[in-house]
Amino acid sequence: MNNVKQHFISSVQFPLFVLIIMWVTHLVKATIWPGLYMYGIYPRELIGLRGIFLSPFIHGDLGHLISNSAPLFLMMVMILYFYRTVAMRSFLMIYFLSGLSVWLFARPVFHIGASGVVYGLVSFVFWSGVFRRSVKSIILALIVVFLYSGLIFGILPNDRGISWESHLLGGVVGLLTAYWYKEEIETDEERRDPEWLSSGEPKEHFLPRDIFEKTKAEREQDANRLW
Fold first, then answer.
1. Which of 115, 31, 42, 129 is closest to 72 using CA atoms?
2. Nearest to 77 by CA among 175, 144, 23
């Protein structure tokens, strides 16, 4: 029980730290540094490369920040808790590759916010269920579908003020990350043989294994010998 509690606490610490940085950054932007958005990703410009590292912490307004905070925190905790073997590597891969893909392919405007990372994490959990096909991964994938199925509409270019490219490319990166790490299964995902099989002791059968291979006369002779 103590190990479970400790693992849960450790799974919450890093996401909470990321959230604190996001909120402190927004407070700075809203009070003393309104031009902080210029540290976002600006595609195909060298100065825009810094946004790969910084843009997930910068948000346009309070609503933008709030809408990203809850799913980012929940998905990070979920991955750190249930996929501990690949959690940090998956997060870093999604974080940097989603930003890099935006820099390479998105419109030439400043792209800010953590939504690309959110889409990447949601996609990772969903596609991990598809690729791993363990009971745990499938249940987690279904939970994600139930909570965030509406995110699918975010990959469409419906609003010029929304970086739909971040959503789409983050989702693609999440899929690729899930596929990349699909063979690194967790201990609770390992398939185990039944106890009777792993113990090396033969299983007792209700009927003789060759009962249907014998004729009626042979079965009667066996029964007579038993008597």
1. 115
2. 144
Residue 116 CA to residue 139 CA, distance in Å, equals 23
- Phi then psi for 111, rounded to 5 degrees? -110, 120
Integer CA distances (angstroms), 44 to 40, 173, 203, in order: 12, 19, 66
Convert the pLDDT of each residue in 70-85 to its tens digit: 999 999 999 999 999 9
Is residue 111 over pLDDT 90? yes
Domains and CATH numbers, the chain: 2-185 (1.20.1540.10)
CA 26 – CA 30 distance, rounded (Å): 6
* Sign of the CA dihedral running 156, 146, 127, 16: positive
Alpha-carbon span 10 to 87, nearest angstrom: 12
Which residues does residue 41 pair with via DSSP β-bridges, in sequence order? 111
Q: How many other β-carbons are positioned within 10 Å of the β-carbon of residue 162?
A: 16
Q: Between helices 115-132 and 87-105, what is the axis angle to 10°?
A: 120
Tokens representing 174 are 């999440």
Whole-model pTM? 0.83
Amino acid at 158: N
How far from chain centre, in Å, is Cα 177?
Answer: 9
Q: Cα 40 to chain center, whole Å?
A: 24
